[in-house]
Amino acid sequence: MTAPLGVLRSGPSTIRDLVVQRLGVPVAAFFNRLGNTFVAAPVVDVMKQDPTRVAFVLTNVSPFDFVIGPTRFGVTVTQGIKVTAFGGTAVADWTEDGEVIAEEWSILGIGGAGNYYLLEFLLVVGPGPGHGP
Hints:
9 strands; Jelly Rolls; mainly beta
């Protein structure tokens, strides 16, 4: 949206502008990048290592609890971040959680199989700040 003639635009005019102002680069959202959203008993990857990941939101839509965590720490029924059944959500952000956000993460179903939704926010790699005019 452009400003009417004779009116100066001041500051950001879109959410993308706000993100670029805060981070210096744009960020894009990706939904279920690995494709498979089914979790059963064995520990499986939920997110591959990605140094451009700045945040994620994982929601459990199944009738069973899940446990998630960075793969290098080992995810077990008693070790990890519990994401409860029927809408339990785990949110991680680089400003609060640091570089662990970019690591490979694993997920384990507790008591049964189910599905999840995963939304990852990745830096858009480009030629310079804002990547555009």
